[in-house]
Design brief:
It comes from Deinococcus ficus. The chain has 318 residues and is of the alpha/beta class. 36% of the residues lie in helices and 15% in strands. It has a single domain (15-231, 269-307), classed as Rossmann fold (3-Layer(aba) Sandwich), CATH 3.40.50. It has helices at residues 8-13, 34-42, 85-95, 110-124, 150-161, 185-197, 212-227, 234-243, 275-279, 285-288, 294-307; strands at residues 18-23, 46-52, 69-72, 102-105, 128-134, 167-173, 201-206, 269-274.
Length: 318
């Protein structure tokens, strides 16, 4: 095996023993971390899954650590919630013999989220935190022509950057998907180049259908999609198609029927970064630090966009 050509990401993980792997943008982002979850588990690493949740919290939900952190286990009552990917994931993990718990972070501003991350890292004695972005808009710095859907990504990035005593990384899966939300991938590659110059780009690698962790990822997605047929994840369905070699305007769900997609091999690549290097580019990060609610986050982003000269939109010259 030519170990010297492995992406630096694996070297940077080093002797990590207890990893918190968290979806940073809400929804199904935690599913984008499942190939890593299974690969790390195969190496004997203790991995805990978490996700910034789009699910409403119920007064009877178990919150053992902080008011904005929910412990999701297979027996958690759905309390009428039809959109609950964390619960369906916990049930699937239980069915295949994996540790059946997923922590759900409430959709808040930075301060409550930071408190929840600190409590969970301490509870788990985690030495490493990996944030996972389904797509690439977490790399937008703030003055691009379009930011995609930046709120949840920016809050997660800012909160985890404030943690002490842990290694922190960010990985993205789904290059090209955020064109659906207006992101120019010229800016994604620009960000990666800037981070590379700062020493924070840790390489990229592809997921292929023959990989065991990828097969389990596909099984998990397909099982949960069956439980939530009205909420099939556009991001994960597109990634799975790319892994299988689909290309072009391929639609796995009728939710995208009115748009043109570009399913492509780059969607099946993990792009890996040192988290502080990504956070250091976020132009409104310091302004986010005092936020408690998503409405305050929205105000910060709006104010920043009003205060800077937005750059012209570029398209990839290929």
């Amino acid at each position: 095996m030519i170990s010297s050509l492995q992406p630096p990401f694996f070297q940077a993980l080093g002797d990590s023993k207890r990893v918190l792997l968290a979806g940073m943008g809400g929804g199904f982002d935690v599913f984008c971390g499942l190939p890593l979850y299974f690969a790390l588990r195969e190496q004997g690493v203790e991995v805990t899954l978490a996700n910034l949740s789009f699910t409403s919290f119920h007064p009877l939900d178990p919150r053992p650590l902080t008011p904005s952190l929910l412990l999701v286990t297979p027996d958690l009552p759905p309390h009428g919630r039809t959109y609950f990917p964390e619960l369906h994931l916990a049930r699937w993990l239980d069915a295949v013999g994996e540790p059946a718990r997923v922590f759900a972070f409430e959709k808040t501003g930075v301060q409550p989220l930071l408190g929840s991350y600190r409590a969970l890292v301490q509870q788990l004695a985690a030495d490493t935190v990996i944030l996972v972005d389904g797509g690439t808009d977490a790399l937008m710095r703030g003055d691009e022509a379009d930011l995609g859907t930046p709120h949840e990504d920016a809050v997660s990035l800012t909160a985890v950057n404030e943690l002490n005593g842990v290694r922190s990384f960010m990985v993205s899966l789904g290059f090209g998907i955020d064109a659906f939300h207006g992101v120019s991938h010229w800016n994604v590659l620009e960000a990666t180049a800037e981070i590379a110059r700062a020493g924070g780009f840790l390489g990229a690698f592809s997921l292929t259908p023959d990989m065991g962790p990828v097969q389990k990822y596909r099984e998990a997605c397909e099982a949960v999609f069956k439980q939530m047929p009205r909420h099939v994840s556009i991001v994960n369905a597109s990634i799975l198609g790319a892994i299988l070699g689909e290309y072009g305007n391929i639609h796995a769900t009728d939710r995208t029927g009115d748009s043109e997609l570009w399913i492509n091999p780059l969607m099946a690549q993990y792009w890996c970064y040192d988290l502080p290097a990504v956070a250091g580019r976020l132009q409104y990060r310091k302004a986010l630090l005092g936020t408690h609610t998503m409405s305050q986050v929205d105000q910060v982003i709006h104010a920043h966009r009003e205060s800077v000269a937005l750059r012209s939109r570029h398209i990839l010259p290929i």
